Amino acid sequence: MDEKKFVGFKEEELGVREYIKGALGKGRISEVLIEYTPVGEKIIVETNRPGLVIGRKGERIEELTTTLKKRFKLDNPHIEIRDITNEMLDAQLVADSIAINLERKGSLKFKLIAYRTLQDIVKAGAIGVEIVLSGKLPGDRAKTWRFSHGYLKKTGDPAKVVRRAMSQARTQQGVVGVKVSILPPDAHIHDRIDVNEELLSRIKIDEVEEIEEEKPKRKKAKKLEAKK
Fold it and tell me: Partner of 122 at 20 to 30 A CA spacing, among 3, 136, 208, 218?
């Protein structure tokens, strides 16, 4: 595949992703993955609200499938829904949620929105989190505000396990950029040490037993020294 065809191919994929996200609504879709099989195109939609995405008796899925065939000329698109169990550990859903709250409540309450979201992410078990808001907050001059908690890698191989996402909020003052970075609790970090509690308790028990065994020996040694 030459360069022009490759670029055109990726543009079509981007168009499919943007259309699905726009059709299903902001704050409902985390990611849209496209896999190509001999049977047709497999489109995986990761969402926290599968019921709303599917619709009654699969009406929304049928509408999307028909539109994808006509508009994007896909041969046989098959849409698969993946449910996200913990939405507060999904960076894209969190970023979209912050953007929606800024649009509804206004940019003047950006600190309240950011801190509440930060607390919810920490309660969900995240090792580290960072929220960056950029725009006219709260005055007419553009500023960047950073809210963070915990441990978060930004460079090297450990930074690859950090979940990152961006979103935009269109407020009365202007567009506000939202960046979210989350280090999930199941992330493998090289400099993180996990302590085996069972092994630690056994070591403590062995140390106590050794001390108890040495006490009579010390008493005998003291008695012998006293007799001398």
Answer: 136
> Which tokens is 32 given?
């849209």
The class (CATH top level) of 3-85 is alpha beta
Q: Evaluate whether 3-85 and 88-183 have a shared fold.
A: no
Residues in the chain: 228
CB distance 119 to 147 below 8 Å: no
88-183 CATH choice from 3.40.50.720, 3.30.1140.32, 3.40.309.10, 3.30.1780.10: 3.30.1140.32
Q: Is the pLDDT of residue 52 over 60?
A: yes
CA distance 140 to 137: 7
Would you say the pTM of this structure is higher than 0.70? yes
* Domain layout of the chain by residue ranges: 3-85, 88-183, 195-228
Task: State pLDDT tens for residues 188-200.
Answer: 776 666 666 776 6
Most confident segment among 19-28, 100-109, 207-216: 100-109
Instruction: Give, rounded to a whole angstrom, the gap between the first and last alpha carbons of the chain.
Output: 96
pLDDT tens for 219-228 read 555 555 655 5
